[in-house]
Design goal:
The complex is a heterodimer of chains A (722) and B (110).
Chain A lengths: L3 H6 L4 H6 L6 E2 L8 H18 L6 H24 L5 E13 L6 E11 L1 H24 L8 H20 L3 H19 L6 H32 L4 H9 L9 H17 L8 H4 L5 H10 L4 H8 L1 H5 L2 H22 L5 H22 L2 H28 L9 E2 L8 H14 L6 H14 L4 H28 L5 E2 L5 H4 L15 E2 L12 H16 L2 H9 L4 H7 L14 E2 L2 E2 H26 L2 H12 L5 H7 L4 H47 L7 H27 L1
Parallel strand pairs in A: 1-2, 5-6
Antiparallel strand pairs in A: 2-3, 4-5, 7-8
Helix pairs in contact in A: 3-4, 3-6, 4-5, 4-6, 5-6, 5-12, 5-17, 5-22, 5-24, 6-7, 7-8, 7-12, 8-10, 10-13, 12-17, 15-16, 15-20, 16-17, 16-19, 16-20, 17-18, 17-19, 17-22, 17-24, 18-20, 18-22, 19-20, 19-25, 20-25
Chain B lengths: L1 H5 L3 H24 L3 H26 L3 H31 L14
Helix pairs in contact in B: 2-3, 3-4
Classes of the chains: A mainly alpha (722), B mainly alpha (110).
């Protein structure tokens, strides 16, 4: 853990201490094949484009994408096998950007080659990105099958573009290439959220995601520019060695301090943190595999990756880390409270994603990159699992996702496996003691609670409260949807209900209290959905292995080792922390965290399974009391954040644009443009009577005019000579 | 040639200028008093030749052959222009079956 008091009074020699020892990078031209990890998905995107141009009406694009992604995953595993936790390797692929200017006195050059920086952090990220990407692509091949011949190719093209961009982002050897990948995943996200482009809400959500990310990206772009101005390089390896050498004098004092805040803005945009979090819930308009892959497991962790990668920069600025911690802690809490009051299952999971990302930022902020990295890892599996089970439900119930209209699904034939896998995901999200997420969340909260800073301790307690809320809202969804009496209403996606290919799976269910559509038979998922679900569930359980290894076998935590051999080494140590209320921070977190989990699940059990009317009674009681009246409505309305942004930004912009439009119409168009035009018209009107159409009149006028002018000239001549 | 132009007879120049202004005046009066388009066109030609004659005379005064050179060019251009103008007159005649320029007075601005 970071020792902040050391940082506070000694900035000169503390730099190396705060950053830790980063292994120097080694050039590895023999690893050029690692470029295929980016190249295969890019190739797949190209092939999908060709499929689209040739109007392929089969599952070929899915096949291409799955093969490419599995290829990427295998190559990543091979790379991991070869490098493990060794020194970072820099693999130059090709020249990309290279400029030089100035003269012999002041020669300057900028180069950002397209090269890979492969260290354990890169490998750690790439393993779950490509692994989950492959599984989710397999899942999507069945999930999207009603769109074969329509958007199927476009969908898999988008997924391929996403994976290529994400691999570029994670494997980049300098910040410019990272930025390329960063914008690439943003583009893929935009394209896939807006996949159902005939739906106005999907188009609006896509635009919202893209625009909010632009705000964050502005910060990232400025941060990268300042890094170049201040440190003279955008290359990771060079930057780290410059940072280790100690603070650099130069371009004023404000600049090094501003860099982490600008980078942070980019991270908050991409990872949906306060104040840029409102795009992520809306992003659920995209197909569910996209929500699982991009908006839960991989892309949204890019912000965490950025800060972990740039941790040497952040470690030198206590204020920056404290800001990250506060934003993360508050986001975790706020998003969890909103999650309690949403009825759309995917939206609940979206808010839980924001909340869990908040935990990761809290971990980074309080100085445990290990905790944050481990939580990214465990979260990727269980959140992908939750989204994919929600997708299986949507797929089977014609797009129904409202938890008020689904109940007791575990008793519906074909949905038993999905229900119990969802239960597993829910337990992991609630951080059930001894589950993988319990250990990762525990590490983060221990670091916060055991910190010397009292505000971090507060964030730790807030995080524990949030853990309880998380357990409640998670099981609110599970008890409502998967448990209890069987009852459901189908959604309005007609293409599923009338799809002939599913008829074999439509077993009429006796004794079901069907909803409005009596001819509707839910169809359970087939193997292409079941197998990825099972594998991801196994992954979610196995993600606990690094912690069990420490706990039961006194071995080492694999994730911790990976983080410790990367640039995020500073926060990779074992988290101990101070004693809290007479207990060690670790024990305290474990006990209170477990209790919060059990209490949260218990309340959810009471209100949403044992006595479902209790939820309404609780709401009534809250509304009845003047001090708590605001709570249910505020949470249902997502803390009015969208409305506040609307008032703060959209309304002034709207009003301003109308004022400017009025100005443009009256002053610019009306006065300047049309006014200028009216002058010659008015002058012409004045002389118009002269043009009476009589030819001789014109000639006489001309002759008279000539005589006048000649007379005038003659008169002047006379005066000059007289 | 330069020597030939170096001296000039004032009376002959005066006579030439007088002829020139007479030609121009006749043309102008004709143009103003007649309605027939062909006659009006002939009158413009008269004014044209008056101006050309003045140019030759002044060229003589200044000892500069440019005046005469210009007139050679003017004559060629005038020939082309005459063809154009007569063609125009024929067209206008076909439209209205008359050569009276009053027939076209509705082309006025208002």
């Amino acid at each position: 853990m970071l020792n902040f008091s050391l940082l506070a009074d000694a900035t000169d020699h503390a730099a190396a201490t705060a950053i830790g020892v980063i292994q120097p990078a080694v050039d590895a031209p023999d690893l050029k094949w690692a470029g295929l990890i980016i190249g295969l998905p890019a190739l797949s995107a190209l092939l999908c484009t060709i499929c689209g141009a040739m109007r392929v009406r089969s599952k070929l694009p899915a096949f291409i994408t799955i093969v490419a992604l599995i290829g990427s995953f295998v190559l990543t595993c091979m790379l991991f096998q070869q490098l493990g936790q060794g020194a970072p390797r820099v693999v130059g692929l090709f020249e990309w950007m290279s400029f030089s200017w100035g003269n012999a006195d002041r020669f300057q050059s900028f180069s950002a080659p397209f090269a890979l920086y492969v260290d354990s952090l890169t490998l750690f990220w790439m393993l779950f990105v490509t692994g989950l990407g492959s599984l989710i692509a397999i899942y999507a091949s069945e999930y999207m099958e009603s769109d074969v011949g329509k958007g199927y190719t476009r969908f898999f093209g988008g997924v391929s573009v996403f994976l290529a961009a994400m691999a570029t982002l994670v494997m980049a050897s300098n910040l410019v290439v990272l930025y390329l990948g960063w914008e690439g995943v943003g583009l893929a996200s935009y394209l896939l959220i807006g996949y159902y482009y005939s739906k106005p809400s999907a188009v609006a959500a896509a635009k919202k995601a893209f625009i909010m990310n632009r705000i964050g990206d502005l910060g990232l772009a400025l941060g990268i520019s300042l890094i170049w101005v201040n440190y003279g390089t955008v290359d990771y390896a060079t930057l780290f060695s410059v940072l280790e050498a100690g603070p650099t004098a130069g371009h004023g004092d404000w600049m090094p301090g501003a860099i982490p805040f600008l980078l942070m803005l980019g991270a908050f945009g991409k990872s949906a943190q306060i104040p840029l979090f409102t795009w992520l819930p809306d992003a659920m308009e995209g197909p569910t595999p996209v929500s699982a892959l991009i908006h839960a497991a991989t892309m949204v962790t890019a912000g965490v990756y950025l800060i972990a990668r740039m941790y040497p920069l952040f470690a030198l600025h206590e204020d920056a880390l404290a800001t990250v911690a506060w934003v993360g802690g508050l986001t975790a809490f706020v998003a969890a409270t909103i999650g309690m009051a949403q009825y759309d299952m995917k939206r609940v999971w979206a808010y839980s994603t924001i909340s869990q990302l908040g935990y990761m930022f809290l971990g980074l902020g309080v100085g445990t990159t290990f905790g944050a990295g481990y939580h990214v890892f465990t979260h990727a599996f269980f959140k992908a699992l939750l989204f994919l089970t929600a997708g299986a439900v949507m797929h089977g119930f014609a797009g129904q996702i409202d938890i008020r209209k689904l109940s007791g699904l575990r008793k519906v034939p074909g949905f038993r496996l999905v229900s119990y896998l969802a239960l597993l995901g829910c337990l992991w999200l609630s951080a059930l003691p001894f589950s993988a997420a319990f250990f990762s969340k525990d590490t983060i909260l221990t670091a916060a609670l055991g910190s010397e800073r009292s505000d971090f301790q507060f964030l730790g307690w807030l995080g524990l409260l949030t853990a309880g809320i998380t357990a409640y809202y998670t099981f609110r969804v599970w008890f409502r949807t998967f448990a209890g009496p069987v009852h459901f209403e189908a959604g309005d996606d007609q293409h599923d209900a009338h799809d002939d290919t599913h008829d074999a799976h439509h077993a009429p269910v006796a004794g079901l209290s069907l909803g409005a559509k009596h001819d509707f038979h839910p169809h359970g998922p087939r193997w292409a959905i079941r197998i990825p679900l099972i594998l991801i569930a196994i992954g979610a359980v196995a993600a606990g292995w690094p912690a069990y290894n420490v706990l039961f076998f006194h071995g080492e935590n694999w994730v911790q080792t990976m983080i410790a051999h990367s640039s995020a080494v500073a926060g990779s140590g074992e988290v101990h922390g101070q004693d809290v209320l007479g207990l060690s921070a670790h024990l305290m977190t474990s006990i209170v965290g477990s209790a919060a989990c059990v209490i949260g699940i218990g309340i959810a059990f009471w209100m949403h399974l044992a006595d479902r009317s209790a939820a309404d009674r609780v709401r009534g009681a809250l509304r009845g009391f003047i001090l708590t009246r605001w709570i249910p409505t505020t949470l249902e309305n997502r803390w009015y954040v969208d409305e506040i942004y609307h008032m703060m930004f959209r309304l002034p912009l709207w009003a301003g644009s109308h004022i400017l439009h009025f100005f443009d119409k009256t002053v610019v168009d009306g006065f300047l443009v049309d006014g200028t035009g009216r002058v010659p018209v008015a002058v012409a009107r004045l002389f118009q009577p002269l043009y009476n159409g009589v030819l001789q009149g014109y000639a006489a006028t001309m002759a008279g005019g000539f005589v006048l002018i000649a007379g005038w000239v003659f008169w002047i001549w006379l005066r000059g000579n007289g | 040639m330069t020597e030939l132009l170096a001296t000039y007879d004032a009376s002959s120049v005066n006579a030439a200028l007088l002829t020139s202004s007479l030609l121009f005046g006749i043309g102008l009066v004709g143009f103003l008093s007649r309605r027939n388009m062909i006659v009006m066109f002939l009158c413009t030609e008269l004014m044209f030749q008056g101006a050309a004659l003045a140019m030759i005379a002044f060229g003589r005064v200044h000892g500069n052959p440019d005046g005469q050179t210009f007139v050679i060019f003017i004559l060629t251009i005038a020939a082309a222009e005459a063809a154009l103008a007569l063609g125009l007159v024929v067209l206008l005649y076909r439209r209205r079956e008359t050569l009276d320029s009053e027939a076209w007075s509705e082309l006025k601005e208002c």
